[in-house]
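[Q] Does anyone have a clean structure-token version of this?
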Amino acid sequence: MKSRAVLDAPSNLGLAPPAPGREPGTRRMPEVLRWNGLRARLGARDAGRVEAPPYGTAVHPCGIRNAEAIAGYARTLADVVESVLVRHELAVVLGGDCSILLGNLLGARRTVDRLGLIFLDGHSDFTTPERSGTHGAAGMDLALAVGRGPALLSALAPDGPLVDSGSVVHLGMREEDPELRASGIPVLDLADIERRGPRATAGEVLDRLGSHPGFWIHVDADVLDDTVMPAVDSRVPGGLSYEALVEMLRSLLGSPRALGVEFTIYDPDRDPEGTVGRAFTSALVEALRP
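[A] Here you go.
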């Protein structure tokens, strides 16, 4: 089994400000998870930190806030992710908002002929600037990754989208999106996972991506039940239990084809007592433990 390397990607560029004059607190997520011992408890190599450009509120003419900064950050992050993967380590990337997906995929696709993506998220993240009410790339990251949206962010690779739509499986959605359903991307929503069970769901996903030599895993904290993970920017009732998430991730990460996993959206500013962060860290340690 691959050894783990923990990399910080503390970007909040893809989110709208929570209030006038305030930055989204997701930039503090890596330091809180590390303070709670995530890297040390895993015995993982420290792969460092990729600092994000300064947060801004201006919306780029393409309709996405901080679009140029996100594009530049994606390229910088990609180089570091690639350097982890060529060591045959499992990259564990601590975000940050969901726009870090772009840099992680850009780096991962350089190491395999055909990249798969397993996308665990309570939302579709398949909106476009025309449909978005926030102009935040964190709600568009999956669409951008499969080549939908402004070229500044949907064409980061020179030879096509970061991942083909036929190489994606979306898991855990509980806020319906007809656009995602119409895209042809397979969706196993919360009800599907509850019917199948987390281990059987993971097995089905691995079978669907069986022809892919490598895959990346995206985990938005809001895929968890809102009662145990309220420290997110866009709350929706319901979600996975910690136990279900751990079981599913352990099954997926048990595959030698797993290249890396990213964790996003937990916001320490929404967790003043720190209790959510401690529980989240413990669950991730259990899921990631070799």
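[Q] Thanks! Anything notable?
[A] The mean pLDDT is 97.
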